[in-house]
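Minutes, project check-in
Item: structure for the 268-residue chain
Input as provided by the requester:
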Amino acid sequence: MQITRLSVSLIFVLANSFQVLSQTPAYPFRNGESARYGAYYNLNFIWIQSGDVEFNADTMVYKNQTAWHLNAVGKTYKAYDWFYSVRDTFETFCNYQTFIPIYSSRVMNHARQNSVHRYWFEPSGKVETLIKQEKKPDFKATLTAGENTYDLLATAYNFRKFDFNKLFVGQKVPYRMIIDRQVSDLFFRYLGKENVKTRNGKEFRCHKVSVYLLQGDFFPEGEYMKVWFTDDKNHLPVQVETQIVVGSVKALLLEPKNMKYPLTSQIK
């Protein structure tokens, strides 16, 4: 169950976007980029790696148009499947020019519990929503999202477009995101710069933010989630740490591939 929360935590944290992001046409990632993270759960002051989460970005033809194809998969290692197996898959297609989502899906398989979330984004700002969960009635609705509203995965990449150097310490920045059955207006707070060491001995200069979240199945309400982004043109997340309902979880960068820019934030 902890890797489930970490899978969602990592993607949720990475998925914080600002309404001003769509004004910037350049993207700090490219076709073929991937990044793998180790998923850790805190047990009696010991961090145990029980799984991983991998993000991939590429381009392809979708509904007769060139589109960004974003994919993220979170899973437990086989050694932990006997306790609680997790296989989560997030997939989003975005307009290649505007990066506005076209379609998004989230398939979550947790032990014997499965759920599927699907979202169809209309040019009008409406989002057709279908959620299927075991032992619950299907949820079907048309949500009003408005401008600059993204799903989890699209906003994860959109977030990286922001210039953190233009923020002052303590500044709050609003963002809007659709998750589960609603569209939420939230915020994050810029906390300044900090160096982060990963488990493979690498160290990066980073920008640190805290994220305000509403009470949910995984998270308590408040600014309990922290994320560190590389202080270079990639703005690649290096570490995510958050409190959950029971305990805390962390994700650390293990293996970045095919970055658009050199990782000049790496100290060693």
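Outcome recorded: Residues 18 and 175 are 4 Å apart (CA to CA).
No further action items on this chain.
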